[in-house]
């Protein structure tokens, strides 16, 4: 008899591999029917004839097969929801200006039993959340002026405060009714109807033109002040320089006067030195001259010119 097969009393062979495979499939099938796997990112709500139980611990959990028990899964991670309708509808500001504003919310499920009891699924809860977003957006936008949405001056815009106000309005209702925590509200887009856009552009152009004229006027005034200050400084510096030049000239004249007294005693020496200075100024480099040596100061080039007549 083979080690892999057994024999029935009537002589038929019994295939153990086939039997073991069948048993394994049956076990897997029973486990699938009587258990469920919970991921770490999910909640599980187990409903048993109308009674619900929350399961938070990840792993394999026992359950009765349908219709005795049914398992509903809810993702516990953050979700972003932009809304379904009303995103491109006009809304009036506090000063009765038309504006088209789109918002989104970030939320997470914190009470899956409340969500299950009220709406059964996340998709249905988002439908109700969409209505809350629409009404909340209209209510909060109606409390702010148009200039707080669209402005060339960032300090005048209040988009951050508007987002916080919408979040505050939605948070309590969403948690009480659907077990949803509103983490934040953001403004995705701010648009203007075509007619309003044209009016806004015209007004912005006029404002920028006025501002440009103010800047040009201030620039011209500043330039005039700079030129005046520069001219005044120039006159002061020229006056100081002229005074200094007079002082230096006077000192030079006084010092020269001492030499004049010496030259009076030796006029020949004075004439000789003046001729040397003149000759140095005329002949500064290698130069060939054809001149009359009887003409001063070239008479110094004659022999014995160093002898001075007293």
Report what the structure shows.
- The protein has about 300 residues and is of the alpha+beta class.
- It folds into three domains: about 5-75, no CATH class; about 80-190, Band 7 domain (Tetrahydropterin Synthase, Chain A, 2-Layer Sandwich), CATH 3.30.479; about 265-300, no CATH class.
- Helices cover about 50% and strands about 20% of the residues.
- It contains six helices and eleven strands.
- The chain has helices at about 15-35, 110-120, 120-140, 160-180, 195-265, 265-280, and strands spanning about 5, 15, 35-40, 40-50, 50-55, 60, 70-75, 80, 90, 100-110, 180-190.
- Strands 8, 9, 10 and 11 form a four-stranded antiparallel sheet that branches. It has a three-stranded antiparallel sheet with strand order 5-4-7, covered by helices on one side.
- Strand 4 and strand 5 (about 50-55) form a beta hairpin.
- Helix 3 runs antiparallel to helix 4 (about 160-180).
- The longest helix has about 70 residues, at about 195-265.
């Amino acid at each position: 008899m083979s080690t892999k097969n057994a024999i029935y009393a009537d002589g038929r062979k019994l295939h153990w591999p086939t039997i073991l495979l069948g048993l394994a499939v049956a076990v897997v099938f029973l486990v699938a029917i009587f258990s469920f796997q919970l991921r770490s990112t999910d909640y599980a709500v187990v409903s048993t004839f109308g009674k619900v139980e929350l399961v938070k611990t990840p792993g394999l959990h026992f359950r009765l097969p349908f219709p005795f028990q049914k398992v509903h899964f809810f993702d516990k991670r953050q979700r972003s929801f932009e809304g379904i309708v009303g995103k491109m509808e006009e809304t009036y500001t506090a000063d009765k200006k038309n504006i088209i504003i789109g918002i989104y919310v970030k939320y997470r499920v914190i009470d899956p039993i409340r969500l299950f009891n009220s709406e059964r699924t996340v998709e249905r809860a988002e439908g109700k959340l969409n209505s809350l977003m629409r009404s909340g957006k209209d209510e909060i936008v109606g409390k702010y002026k148009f200039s707080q949405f669209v402005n060339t001056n960032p300090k005048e815009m209040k988009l951050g405060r508007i987002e916080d106000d919408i979040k505050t309005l939605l948070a309590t209702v969403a948690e009480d009714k659907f077990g949803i925590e509103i983490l934040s509200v953001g403004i995705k887009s701010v648009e203007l109807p075509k007619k309003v856009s044209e009016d806004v552009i015209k007004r912005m152009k006029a404002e920028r033109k006025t501002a440009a004229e103010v800047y040009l006027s201030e620039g011209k005034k500043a330039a005039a002040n700079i030129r005046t200050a520069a001219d005044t400084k120039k006159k002061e510096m020229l006056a100081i320089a002229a005074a200094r030049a007079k002082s230096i000239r006077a000192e030079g004249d006084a010092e020269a006067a001492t030499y004049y007294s010496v030259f009076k005693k030796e006029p020949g020496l004075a004439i000789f030195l003046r001729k040397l200075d003149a000759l140095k100024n005329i002949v500064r480099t290698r130069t060939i001259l054809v001149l009359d040596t009887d003409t001063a100061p070239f008479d110094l080039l004659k022999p014995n010119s160093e002898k001075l007549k007293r």
